[in-house]
Write the structure tokens for this entry.
Amino acid sequence: MALINLVNLCYDYPNTTGLDHLNLTINAGEFVCLMGPNGSGKSTLMKILSGLASPKSGDYQLDGQAITAAYLADAQRRQRLHQKIGVVFQNTDVQLFNTSVAEEIAFGPRQLGLSAAAIEQRVTDCLQLTDCEALRERVPYQLSGGEKKRVALASVLALNPEILLLDEPLNGLTIAAQQQILTLLQRLQSAGKTIIMASHNFQQVQAVGQRFIIFNSLHQISADMTAADLQRQPDRQTQLMTL
Amino acid sequence: MALINLVNLCYDYPNTTGLDHLNLTINAGEFVCLMGPNGSGKSTLMKILSGLASPKSGDYQLDGQAITAAYLADAQRRQRLHQKIGVVFQNTDVQLFNTSVAEEIAFGPRQLGLSAAAIEQRVTDCLQLTDCEALRERVPYQLSGGEKKRVALASVLALNPEILLLDEPLNGLTIAAQQQILTLLQRLQSAGKTIIMASHNFQQVQAVGQRFIIFNSLHQISADMTAADLQRQPDRQTQLMTL
Amino acid sequence: MEPKQPTNLPAWLQAPASTTSHATRVTFWQRNQRHLRALLRRLAQPAPAIQPRWHLAPQINLIRLLLLVLLIALIQNAVLLWCLALLLGFQLLWLPPGQLRRFVRSWLFSSVVAVIIVLPSYWLNGPATLLFFSLKTSLMLANAQYYRLTTPFQDLLSGLKSLHFPDVLIMTLAIAVTYLRMLGQHLLLTMEALETRTVAPTKHPYRLIGAMFGNLYLKSYAYALELYAAMEARGFNGHYVRSTPTHSHWRDYLSLSPDLLVLILFVLWRP
Amino acid sequence: MHIPDNYLSPATCGTLVVAMAPVWTVSVLTVKAQVKKHHETLPMLGIAASLAFLIMMFNLPIPGGTTAHAVGGTLLAVLIGPWAACLALSVTLLLQALLFGDGGILAFGANALNMAVIMPFVGYGCYRLGQKLHHEKIGLAVGAYLGINAAALIAGVELGLQPLLAHTASGAPLYCPYGLNIAVPAMLSAHLLVAGWVELVFTLLVFQFVKRVAPTNLYQTPVKTNRRPWLALLVGLAILSPLGLLASNTAWGEWDTTELTHLLAQQHLSTQAPQGMVHGFHFQALFSDYAIAGLPVSVGYILSALSAILIFLLLIRGLQHGTETTD
Ligand SMILES: Nc1ncnc2c1ncn2[C@@H]1O[C@H](COP(=O)(O)OP(=O)(O)OP(=O)(O)O)[C@@H](O)[C@H]1O
Ligand SMILES: Nc1ncnc2c1ncn2[C@@H]1O[C@H](COP(=O)(O)OP(=O)(O)OP(=O)(O)O)[C@@H](O)[C@H]1O
Ligand SMILES: [Mg+2]
Ligand SMILES: [Mg+2]
């Protein structure tokens, strides 16, 4: 069944268009890559999917439930939505608000009311998965750019969300770390998570993405194809190389 | 003559090392790439070079002039330093604070007391060079991640600095835009500017960099070589591919 | 989409940079940056370096502070005040030397400032009033300073929570401190970025300040949504769940007893 | 103008905290209604509090080479609404008192009244008035200037009353040693001459920026408001203010209430950023005659309490009218 379903979805910023008549269906367990020029609307779509903004017109359905402004007005429902969807923002600065990296990662599990041992387990695991063990007692906002990205990812993983929205999560990481994260994402996907990732590096995501959704500079979806489709279109591939 | 000269330079953050005994000489007109793992000290070095922090021990000389805390305490000298060095930060969010993109770019030239026509000229040129014409009247803080990067670069170029410090300026740009910026940087270098750029994408900077300075995770410089040196060391190249 | 080739460099960009010098005025940016750094350093401490010898329940600490300040304000009796000062002095004994120096430094500084303000009243009311007032004020300052030095922010929150302050207030406080870090850092970095582009004295610093705080507000508005979602996504629902260690309460109440004793003396003792 | 501890008698402090209670209650109720419509209001409260903190610690240059800082009460009221601003500023003050030593712990109620109630509401009232007359910027400017000066005046009164309310048998003051004749002029002149203008310019510039860049992010006055909270506030204040008057004059006069001079507050703030801007005022204290201090005693107190109530009544009236004309 379709996990995410967008029908004619539009979003406008006060003086620019954000998204223009999007139609999109994403199934559970897919690994979706969003690509497109700068300012084409990738981050805006993430914002809508995560319930930070509600569409101006059109529908957004998650698991068959329409997510509208009214739906989002209810704190409890919003919270349920947020628990289902983990987001790593493009600017990870806004995402880290605790006084130590360990605290940062423990924040989510603690709110869920897990036992101290379980929390500790999650913290250790997440630190290890993202290769952040050395940062454990550091203050998050004092980390370097790449370290912040990794900690943000770790803090989202600790909640074990069903859907992961990752807005250019590999920016500023070393190539080795990028590979490591990609492998991690692939594992998560095989564990049944749905992953939606924005990226500008086709070469890198080509290996992991199962589906590629390409925005154009008019904030529309100009193409939506599976990895298999893409294999058959070498000119498409060269186009994606420039995005 | 050496433009920038670092001798045994150390920098410490309250609870971590930032830089550890750096020795480095950069000549005018060079295109230098800084590479290294996350948190190895690239951004910290940029901070010192731009005069935002002063070394804890060791010397930093610019054009034969030692830049010390005492030197930086003088507002006039600091301004002269800033005229010489343009900086694009890793997190460009903090760099844009005017009401429109055009204003943002005009900010620097206006301080220099240029005529209105000259300012207008610079704004137009910079917008064109970074392919931002369409953003001219937009509000900087409302731009997308990649757009912000480009505007930040444009606003620094408008000051025509002698030295450009670019901290991962290509992050979040489309590959096409990255190419365009790299070409622009090459042109700037041939016009005599010194360019110091941090990056994690060796493939990309390989084509333009003349010199590669590699940090290790101990915040030291582990290698410093020219493009020609690098040509002769294929194993080095594969190492750099992972940074 | 053809990758667009950049046009040639304009002439002004090819010309060697000419550095000009301008007469400068005092910059207040530097000073603000210093203050902000100090603030951030203080906020960055995950926990204060010192833990008092006995870790008391946070709400007891808070009540103690209130009680002490109130007592000092009420008491006009030198002997009782002396007792309170001794009480504090004994507590200070447990501080590690470095912390003690820090305490003395900031306490002396704030006391001197307070005394300077009341100094002119010497000519109004004579030395006795001045002396008494100064002593009482610095005693209050010392107690407040001790509290600040020994209480991590988390404890303040859980203290308020145990005292049944509404969740809205506690959450607002928590968010305020979180944001103080983030916005402070943002402001600091913005000032630094601004500085790297300040190549001549700013003619209209006020306009820049307006732009900076305007930006700060607008960005924080956008951040508010994102950060709150990030918090909610991680299960935050406005209730601060804290694993509070279970305490033997007699110790907490015992620690209040000297203050209560003084209170009783104050009420009953009519010399 | 943070009033430190020991300048106000405990009774004054208590009275003012009690007086703040209905205001906070109404604030919470109003803000809760606001949250229903815009759920970002809740995090915005915390953010506004930290913003206020940063504004208060940011030194602005003033002609003459020294610095002052703005308080931002009016600005916040315009940005997030007066009730939310009241809560946010209260949180800021609490934080400053408990964790940063700015402003007293006992004096929290007094500080909250001055800076979290009087300043934003006076400022916002003027702004709304200006908006109605189609000169919102002038309204805002006047509001910012008047707001901070009204707060300073009240602070001066609170402080200046202390020697009258709390003194030993021989007449020596127990708390703030300066009478109304010193406290009020000192507070007022510093604000009328310097701080008010700083506040005005700062408020106007930030407002202008936000207005130009994102006008939708300004607080939109609700079209229809429920009058009940207003009424509650009105009644609460009307009842409590005389109560305060009562409490301060009754038997426990020995430890009674008043407030700190503006001068004192200014000086106290400078623990973090020493400033020399108001040093001149000490001289007034030096030359003032002890005898004069007693003159406007009870009359002054009653008059100022009455004017405080009156200002509130007028403001509330003005605001109510405003909401009527907008729909
Ligand atoms: N807060 C905002 N207010 C107004 N316009 C905005 C805002 N954020 C983004 N925009 C605009 O909306 C459009 C889509 O932006 P979005 O951030 O979704 O792009 P993107 O695809 O993520 O780009 P990038 O690859 O650069 O991150 C752009 O034209 C952008 O300028
Ligand atoms: N403000 C700060 N306070 C304390 N420590 C810091 C601060 N900024 C950076 N650090 C630490 O200093 C070290 C060097 O950081 P720096 O930002 O220079 O790394 P970097 O090489 O730029 O990394 P990246 O590639 O991730 O951007 C890291 O260990 C980092 O955690
Ligand atoms: Mg984006
Ligand atoms: Mg960096």
